Amino acid sequence: MTEKDKIYMRRCFELARKGLGLTRANPLVGCVIVHNDRIIGEGYHHEFGGPHAEVNAIRSVKDPSLFPEATLYASLEPCAHYGKTPPCSMLVHQKGIRRVVISNLDPSPRVNGLGIRHMEKAGISVVTGCLEEEGCDLNRRFFVYQKEKRPYVILKWAQTVDGFIDLEREPEDHVGTNWITDEVSRTLVHKWRSEEAAIMVGTNTIITDNPRLNIRRWTGDHPVRVTIDRNGRLSDNAYILDGSQDTIVFTGVPGKYSGRTRSIRVDPSYDLRDLLEELYDQQIISVFVEGGAKLHESFITSGLWDEARVFTGKMSFTQGVRAPELKEIPDETLIFHDTILNLYKNRDNLLHGG
Ligand SMILES: NC(=O)c1ccc[n+]([C@@H]2O[C@H](COP(=O)([O-])OP(=O)(O)OC[C@H]3O[C@@H](n4cnc5c(N)ncnc54)[C@H](OP(=O)(O)O)[C@@H]3O)[C@@H](O)[C@H]2O)c1
């Protein structure tokens, strides 16, 4: 593997990222075809069900006579199965490409090394592991989904400088959010929503804040809304039950839901792992958990989280709902305007070093 290979692989990653939030349970994949140090074709996987990155890259090449002298770079192992298009590993062979550089192997059962074996059997030279760690980070949602059979879990909350996520509320208090962060942070949260398959909040948060849980400050498909209503405490007037958006309510008390709201039965002693397995079965690759404290704490205690994004605003509440606690040291700290953003990765997790 050469330094030039790494440069072209980084371009694959750049292209792959354009599919974030659009490929759903599929991986993010970018592909570049290089001849004599010149990119002659490139492509990425745009959306779930659409052509694979390799197909798009191969189609973009104007002069097919260059294929035999070209190298194909792909951020993920080319597939080995018939889907909407023939296997990409077969296509690479048919086009006469003789060298392929890959970052990660595809762990999904239908591929899992088979794409590489097909190409090697056809006499193609295959280099694997090019910028493997970066590739793994790019497709962290996909790898957790495939290997752990659950969605990738991102926790997010905003806390005051003295460690509260809300003021103490009385039942007669207003319904709505007591904002802690600034406009920039709120816009960033909507961008993050556009990148994940589902958003989840706890019962109390629906009751106190009545959030819409959609994308208003960014573009993109609304994620599936998810909540738990074990004891039938949610009001029919809650936005989350308005039927306007795909919504899953894990419930112990069957409700009369309309439109795009579905209920999934859970018994009182259910485990978060069961709930995540159910979301996995619904092909939900990632869940963005937006609070409250009790739900976050359940995810933290069970170790079923992969990332946390914690805003700390400049205000103090003195008393109220205590923010969840993370023992980890932040991997990264960003400061914008009056807000600090700490980013954490769960080190006990398979992908982040566990
Ligand atoms: N600053 C922020 O970022 C932010 C974000 C969201 C919310 N908030 C604030 O947080 C407060 C609500 O937080 P909260 O901690 O009281 O409640 P919560 O986490 O929103 O909801 C907790 C409730 O959800 C139900 N639940 C079902 N399964 C659960 C599980 N596995 N783990 C935890 N809860 C489960 C339980 O009700 P049942 O017993 O009925 O099942 C539980 O009491 C509100 O004041 C809200 O404004 C702040």
Structure summarized in a few sentences:
This protein has 10 helices and 16 strands. By secondary structure, the protein is of the alpha/beta class.
What is the CATH homologous superfamily assignment of the largest domain?
Dihydrofolate Reductase, subunit A
CATH topology annotation of the largest domain: Dihydrofolate Reductase, subunit A
Tell me which ligands are bound.
NADP nicotinamide-adenine-dinucleotide phosphate
Number of domains: 2
SS elements, strand count: 16
Based on CA atoms alone, the radius of gyration comes out at 23 Å
- Give the N-terminus to C-terminus distance in angstroms: 28 Å
Please give the CATH architecture of the largest domain.
3-Layer(aba) Sandwich
Point out poorly predicted stretches.
Answer: none
Give the topology string: H per helix, E per strand. HEEHEHEHEHHEEHEHEEEHEHEEEE
Write the layout of secondary structure elements.
Blueprint: H1 3-17, E1 30-35, E2 38-44, H2 53-59, E3 71-76, H3 88-94, E4 99-104, H4 114-121, E5 125-127, H5 132-138, H6 140-148, E6 152-159, E7 164-166, H7 183-195, E8 198-201, H8 203-209, E9 224-229, E10 247-251, E11 261-265, H9 272-281, E12 286-289, H10 293-302, E13 307-312, E14 321-322, E15 332-336, E16 339-345
Parallel strand pairs: 3-4, 4-5, 6-12, 6-13, 8-9, 8-12, 9-10, 10-11
Antiparallel strand pairs: 1-2, 1-3, 7-14, 13-16, 15-16
Helix pairs in contact: 3-4
The protein binds NADP nicotinamide-adenine-dinucleotide phosphate.
Structure description:
With 354 residues, the protein is of the alpha/beta class. It has ten helices and 16 strands. The chain folds into two domains: 3-138, Cytidine Deaminase, domain 2; 151-352, Dihydrofolate Reductase, subunit A, CATH 3.40.430.10. The protein has a nine-stranded mixed sheet with strand order 11-10-9-8-12-6-13-16-15, with helices on both faces. It has a five-stranded mixed sheet with strand order 2-1-3-4-5, with helices on both faces. Strands 7-14 form a two-stranded antiparallel sheet. α3 runs parallel beside α4 (114-121). The radius of gyration is 23 Å and the shape is elongated. NADP nicotinamide-adenine-dinucleotide phosphate (NAP) binds at residues 157-158, 165-166, 169, 180, 201-205, 208-209, 228, 230-231, 233, 272, 290-295, 298, 321.
